[in-house]
């Protein structure tokens, strides 16, 4: 089993998208959580912003992160020819 | 194959649509029965036995003796259905019944559970699920064993899997006992064993295959049960049946009421202040007596005795004498009893504190207390998230999908189905709070709503209410609500028929049973597959392996039920501990196993032992149950979040251990490439069948 340049590119792209999505995950969870007191003046749909993020906003973003990752990687597999055969 | 898989998929969709329709018809049928005079007790029995019978039936139909079917449901569970099964596997009694209650009682801080138990799936998706699926064996210790080589990493994995799954399964069985006891009047112990029967028939006969298809059925029941009451309550309060969209405005009203209650210049605030003063005074009296023990005990007793003697001597009226006798009889038996009773009395002072602001983040008396609250909030979120991505019973589910592609999609469906419930829980908490603040507070004791008096009668720890200032009206400080009431009583608060209360109980039962199923299977697989087959007797026949697995399942289940019937300590802490332990023990080794080629056997061993060790040490020195004291805390972090120290310890141990010893062999490096790419030419094969 020999890895080609293409394989390394694939893995590199995977790491990049993982890092970006992880950064978004970190910001909506921990950065907003850390500054919750400072952000509570902002109101959205009747909620103070940090409460909204904790109860709804961040959850929606989590679902979106996972959806995007699955979508992106399943496409990337085909682009780089590492997708699974039809028999699976 | 692809055709067979898609035919299988559409067949499943047909079955489960039919099943959902059938379940709704069953509800309507029971509702009609209730109108015609069916008693609540019978409705409770019908729900209990109909649902457990249903799960057992699915288990019976899915019985199997094939290894791949038994351990990983034949690896043909479509992404969508695996998502539903993971949802049911994931959402336990704590999520279903406890979470909305925690949110009701703690407001913003309770959101740590909502965030932690959903955001963890991002880590599952990005770091683990697709790679584990490519690896494609049967258990999580399998991966540790193959990636790091040798029996030691596998053995540590087996131990860690057993410790965290067993702590967690006890909490589930406890939930089963409570629900069956409350809704059918059976005794707690009997309730535990009835529930256990349901769990066993299912996993015993068909292993993962039966558990998967039962969990899908359980998800359908639990989500219907969770959604109906808040939708109805929202309709009643706002005229709009989408609680998640409208509760922001209800929250504003709740916040306005909180301000009124805390402001003594308003009418409501004045009444509240009155009651709070009574509570504070009672607490102060108890505190003074506690400080003066044992003298206060003797003084109190002799006062009562003299009083009684005086009445008898002066020929007091029979009522007065009787009252004095009762007062003496109620007086604590000895100094220790007095200490316990007065400590409890002292605690009522907390009810005299101002009302907690639901939407405010990190309330605290000063800047420092508020920052400690924030740090604990963030630490708990991290532990719950990383723990989610390390609990073996969840990760195992991603072995069951047909492909890596399906595993990725399946994480999406898992979180989607979990999200539906977690998105609704905060709404439910606010709607019930509005109901209590707006409708219950201020009504007269003569006209208590039916749900209040019902629950106060059933269980005073969930609902108790006393007119402390004798004004005949209810003040907020006069109400004591237990967290579990929120979900269980919402059907009655919303004015729904009893059938819906039964449905909610069935939903809670489904949540607890489905999680218990997954956990028991994890434990028995860890022992039968990893310990016995991989380490003791690699030549065992498949029949022997499956038989051993089944026997172990039975043993573990009975042991767990026995431990549960002893009612060990604090359930919430047990659950939290399971997450911190899993996070510290598994996460560093699993993630580095995929992402860091250089990670080796010794790194994994030091990392896992180091993580678990630090985590356990911290719990041991800080949690009162083990004799620890809060003064030992580092940075004021609560023992439930011990993982915040265990996770870094695990990573540091793994990195140091790996760098100090030689790089892993070539075949292990090939394994790393193998799991990183869904398909490689000339690839090795690791998938077990």
Describe the structure in your own words.
- The complex is a heterodimer of chains A (88) and B (689).
- By secondary structure, chain A is mainly alpha-helical.
- Chain A has one domain (17-79).
- Chain A has helices at 5-34, 36-39, 49-79, and strands at residues 43-44, 47-48.
- In chain A, strand 1 (43-44) and strand 2 form a beta hairpin.
- In chain A, helix 1 (5-34) runs antiparallel to helix 3.
- Chain B has helices at 2-35, 40-61, 67-72, 79-90, 93-106, 111-135, 140-148, 151-184, 188-238, 243-261, 267-291, 295-313, 318-330, 335-347, 367-388, 392-395, 404-440, 450-458, 485-493, 498-536, 542-565, 571-585, 587-595, 601-622, 643-660, 666-676, and strands at residues 463-465, 479-481.
- Chain B has a two-stranded antiparallel ribbon.
- The longest helix of chain B has 51 residues, at 188-238.
- Chains A and B meet through helix 1, strand 2 and helix 3 of A and helix 6, helix 10, helix 15, helix 17 and helix 26 of B.
Order of helices and strands of chain A: HHEEH
CATH architecture of the largest domain in chain B: Up-down Bundle
| Radius of gyration of chain A over all CA atoms, rounded | 18 Å
In terms of per-residue confidence, which ranges of chain B show pLDDT below 50 for 5 or more consecutive residues?
none
